[in-house]
Amino acid sequence: MAINLDNDDFILGVIGAGAMGRGIVQVAAAGGLRVKLFDVNQAQSQDAVEFVGKMLGRAAEKGQMTEADASAASGRIEVVEATQGFADCQIVIEAATENPDIKNKIYEDLEGIMAEDAIIATNTSSLSITTLASPLKKPERFVGMHFFNPVPLMRLVEVIDGVRTAAEVGDTLMELGRRMTREPVRCQDAPGFLVNQVGRGYNIEAAHINSEQVADIPDLDRILSEGAGFRMGPFTLLDLTGLDVTHPATELIYRQFYEEPRFRPNVMLRARMEAGMLGRKTGHGFYDYSSGKQEFPAEAGYPAYDGLPIWISKAEDEGHKALTEIVSKIGGNLETGESPSSDALILVTPIGDDVTTTAVDQGLDPARTLGVDTLVGLATRRTLMTNPATKAEFRDAAHGLLTGDGVKASVIRDCPGFVCQRIISTICNIGCQIAQLGTAGPEDIDKAVVLGLNYPNGPLTFGDQLGPKNVLRVLEACHRLYGDPRYRPSPWLRRRAELGLSLFDKEI
Ligand SMILES: NC(=O)c1ccc[n+]([C@@H]2O[C@H](COP(=O)([O-])OP(=O)(O)OC[C@H]3O[C@@H](n4cnc5c(N)ncnc54)[C@H](O)[C@@H]3O)[C@@H](O)[C@H]2O)c1
To answer: Cα–Cα distance between 177 and 148 in angstroms, integer?
Structure first.
C-alpha cells in the first residue's frame, strides 16, 4: 500500500536526537508533519525538543512563521522512550551515531516493529546504502535520506537508492523531502553520494597545487574566492570544517572507489591532520586563530608599471582580445607586430598548457614571458604565471601593468591550467563522471552542488560557461604534463566537447 503523506494518521519517526536528528525533527514539524523522536540517551531527546521549540520560536520572532504555526509545530513533536513507539510510523529516518553496528541493530529492531510496507531511511553521510540494507529482511524498503548540517539552513537533501531499493520508496522520500520544505535530489548509491564526491575536487586540487610550490595558501584562497567567485577559499573552508573531518572522508571515498586517482588525497593534508593543525577548532590550521578570528595575512604592495613595451601572443584568439582590451584601457605600451621586439614583456594566454610549454611551442623568449589566465577571473582578480626562466624584472612589470586599473593580481609559478582553470575543470570532470556513471542526472548534480556546497555554479554549468572544449583542453594538458590518470577526462565531457554539445545534453 502506498504511503500517503497527507493522511492525518501519517507519522514520521526520527532516531537519534543529535545535531542532525533535531534538525530533521524541526523541518518535519515545521512542514506540518507529526514526528516521533527516540534517542538511547533520553536526556538528549528532551534537550532536542527544547532546542527545536526555541528554534521555532526564534523563526516566529524573525517573522519566518507565525507564533501560532510555531507552537503548532512544537505540538506535533512527541518523544518516545523505546523503538516500540515507532509501530505506527510509516517512515522512520535514522540519524544515530555513524557506526554500522549501531545502525544495523536499529534496523533489526525496526523490522520487527514497523508495518511490512513502512520505509526505513538513513541519514548516514559515509556508509553505503546498499551495504547497510543487506542484512535487512526487506532491503527494498531501505533508502538513504542525506540531510546537511545545519538542517534548517541547508535546503538540500539527497535521496539515495541502494541497489535493492524499490523505486517507489525513493519516490515517496522525494515527496517527503518537499513536504519538509527541502529541495530533494535523487541519486544512486555511490561513495560520497553526490555532494561529498564533488566537494573532494576543490580542496584536494588546491592542496596539490600548493604542494608543488605554485602559490601560497592565502594567494590560492584569494584567487579562488575573488577570481572565481567561490564563497570561501579552499584552505579557509578546510579550516572551518576541520581536517579531522574532511581528510578521513576523502580517504574513505578514495578507498571506496577502489583507489580512483581522481579522488587521491594529498599527503600534505594528512601530515597537517596528524600534526593537530585541524583548523579553527584547534586555534591553528592553514591560518592562525589564536585571537579568536582568522589572521589573514595582508597582501604585499604591487610594483609600478614603468612603460615597458608589451607584446601579447595571438595564439589564443579570445585570450588575446580580452587581454589586449584590458592592457589598452590601462594605457600599456602595446606592440602590434607579429613577433615581440627584443626588449618587450611577452604575455601569453594559454588554456591548459603551462607557460614553459607555451613559450617553447611558440618560440618565445621564456625570460620575458608570463602567462595570464583570461579564461577565468580577469574582472575581479587576475592570475599571472611565471616559468622557471622568467626574470624578476619582467614578472614585476607584468604585475604592475595588470594591477594598473585597481584590480588585484596574484603571481604564481608555472602550472598547467593556472589555478582557476585547473580547479574548475577538476570539479567539472568529477560532475561529468557522476553523470556518466548514472549516479544522478545533470540537473540534479548541479542543483545538489549549488545548494550543498554553496559553489557559484554546479559542475556542468561551470563547464558550459568555460566551454566544454576548453575544459577538455585543460584536463588533457594536465594529463600530458603529469602523466597522472587523475586528470583523464570523463567520457561524458569528451564526447560533448567533441560534438559541440552542452554538458546537460543527454544521450537517447
Ligand atoms: N553532523 C553532520 O554534519 C552530519 C551531516 C550529514 C549526515 N550526518 C549523519 O547523521 C547521523 C547523526 O550524526 P550527528 O552529527 O547528528 O551525530 P550526533 O553524535 O550529534 O548524534 C547521534 C545521536 O545518536 C544517538 N544514538 C546512538 N545510538 C543510538 C541508538 N542505538 N538508538 C537511538 N539513538 C542512538 C546518540 O545518543 C546521539 O544523540 C550520522 O549517521 C552522520 O553520519 C551527520
So the answer is: 13
